[in-house]
Fold:
Amino acid sequence: MVKLVVRDRETIQEAVRRFRKLVERSGIKKEMRRREYYEKPSETRRRSRLRAERRSRRTRLLAN
Structure:
């Protein structure tokens, strides 16, 4: 949960900008997008497997 304490003499625009950054860094937006639609367990496993393959391919290319 993100909490934002508005500073003295801080404009609303500055507070909103800081809030957006906090939400972005905390991963809430990413989580919301991921949960926006139901994803079958098989699709979740497939996505994680593909991510792992890309990661291993990248490490092999960088190691050479």
